[in-house]
Design goal:
- The chain is built from 14 helices and 16 strands.
- It is α/β, with parallel strands linked by helices.
- It has 2 domains: 188 residues, 2-Layer Sandwich (VC0802-like); 229 residues, HUPs (Rossmann fold).
- The strands form 2 sheets. Strands 1, 2, 3, 4, 5, 6, 7, 8 and 9 form a 9-stranded mixed sheet that branches. A 7-stranded mixed sheet has the order 14-13-10-11-12-15-16, with helices on both faces.
- Helix 8 packs across helix 14 and helix 13 runs antiparallel to helix 14.
- Bound molecules: adenosine-5'-triphosphate and magnesium ion.
- The site of adenosine-5'-triphosphate (ATP) has 19 residues, from helix 5 and strand 11.
Length: 437
């Protein structure tokens, strides 16, 4: 790192990550992916110089002394979308010497103090203060606690309203003394945690226009997974808006991963009609779902994804009892991940609001699942019963019909185009392997 003598203004950003710090040999790969995500989401601050050093990532403005004045707004806006980031702090770099640190703190502290005075106008109310110091520079003469005490002795007499409160400070000064510089910051912008985009595996998500499945996608992306999406519709029984609504959800979710995922739209109607005509109405939902996961298993093969993802939740609706979920699992050629399995609905809704999918999900558009939905669905299907019902159908033929009519939807323009012939090839292989039965 250069000798950093930048002071005042925001001369640097310190990025903290929590969980990825525990990764052993993979750590540098995780860091690389986090840096890639930071550069993507902080494009407004480009060009950036990145320094990775001992569990920290520092960002500096390239070719300028400081970041623009609205850096904090830019960070607050972007940081919640950077998976893998615990928090970051914009701050000031100075030489790793006590004198330089003291000078910088004395210069920057008044503004920080003033902002708390404005928030606590009553002069009788104390302002809770703490300094948190970290030292990885052994040559530096003071230990971190000594540095904290040093500054308390310096600042408390000058600012009588300050009251040291290590447990719950309002005005918090972070100082990191490193080999080639010391970093001083007053702000901490919380990140979403999780793992950086691209560090997890690939998944094929069953995405409906409901509240749950977009949240399930978010949760998986937060663990570093990359998603492609499949949505089922029943045109002309469902309107075109059933697809465009899902496309808008994809448009909202895609920026959270490094590469945009593809959206497949599958018309399930023919299969639904066959189920309606031949099978016990009380088992319809489970039968539909088994057809869905079979189709998605084929998409998963085309996309090299080892598993599927759904927004299913234990006991939320009749089709999602433990018995029914187990029977649905048996139709899939790959495992089904269900990150919301144990969530309460209000927990899911809260996340949906926070990530901006709720606004779209709450729009009332008929869903494929409600077409020919039974009045009293079975809550405890058994595999025997379901297999016996499916024997009345030509399952491979229905799968072929659905997959032949599948299109890829552009999440921005809603334009539809035929998927690659690979999907048909995969279907032939899948049916050849007998996986559909
Ligand atoms: P959601 O709000 O995600 O639609 P839900 O509580 O309404 O969930 P269901 O509609 O029974 O529950 O669906 C359970 C899961 O099945 C969904 O989370 C989704 O993963 C998948 N699914 C349901 N309908 C569709 C569809 N039309 N297209 C794609 N996947 C679907
Ligand atoms: Mg739904």
């Amino acid at each position: 790192m250069d000798v950093l003598t930048r002071t005042r203004g925001c001369g640097g950003i310190l990025c903290r990550y929590s969980e990825i710090a525990t990764k052993g040999r993979n750590r540098s790969e995780f860091e690389r992916l986090l840096v890639r995500a930071l550069k993507r989401h902080l494009a407004l601050l480009a060009p950036l110089k990145v320094v990775r050093e001992r569990g920290r990532i520092f960002l500096f403005p390239e070719g300028r002394e400081t970041f623009p004045e609205d850096v904090l707004d830019i960070l607050r806006n972007a940081v919640p979308r950077v998976f893998g980031l615990a928090s970051l702090s914009p701050g000031t770099w100075v030489a790793p010497e006590l004198e330089a640190i003291e000078q910088a703190v004395l210069e920057t502290f008044p503004a920080a103090y003033e902002s708390w005075v404005q928030r606590r106008p009553d002069p009788g109310t104390p302002i809770r203060y703490a300094m948190r110091a970290r030292r990885n520079n052994r040559a530096f003469p003071l230990k971190s606690t000594e540095l904290e005490v040093y500054f308390a002795q310096l600042l408390l007499p000058r600012y009588p309203r300050l009251k040291v409160d290590l447990g719950d400070p309002e005005l918090r000064v972070d100082v990191e003394v490193r080999e080639d510089g010391a970093f001083i910051s007053y702000e901490r912008v919380e990140g979403p945690g999780g793992l950086p985009p691209g560090s997890g595996g690939r998944l094929v998500a069953l995405l409906s226009g409901g509240i749950d499945s977009p949240v399930a996608c978010y949760q998986a992306m937060r663990r570093g997974c990359t998603l492609h999406y499949v949505t089922f519709h029943s045109a002309p029984f469902t309107p075109p808006a059933a697809i465009s609504k899902v496309a808008r959800l994809v448009h909202r979710l895609n920026p959270l991963q490094y590469r945009p995922g593809r959206l497949y739209a599958v018309n399930l109607l023919e299969a639904q009609q066959a189920v309606r005509d031949a099978c016990n109405p009380r088992l319809r939902t489970v039968l539909y779902r088994r057809l869905m996961v079979r189709i998605c298993s084929v998409v998963a093969r085309t996309e090299n994804a080892p598993a599927l993802l759904t927004g299913e939740n234990l006991g939320q609706v009749a089709s999602q009892t433990l018995e029914n979920l187990t029977v649905i699992d048996r139709a899939a050629a790959v495992p089904i991940l269900r990150p919301l399995l144990t969530f309460d609905k209000n927990e899911t809704t809260e996340i949906a609001r926070r990530i901006g999918t709720y606004e779209i999900s709450k729009e009332q558009v008929p869903d494929s699942c409600t077409v020919f939905a039974p009045e009293r669905p079975v809550t405890a299907a058994t595999l025997e019963r379901v297999v016996e019902q499916e024997a009345r159908l030509d399952v491979p033929d229905l799968l072929r019909a659905c997959i032949e009519a599948t299109v890829l939807v552009d999440p921005e323009t809603f334009e539809e185009k035929a998927p690659s012939p690979r999907l048909q090839q995969m279907l032939a292989q899948y049916l050849g392997a007998g996986a559909a039965v």
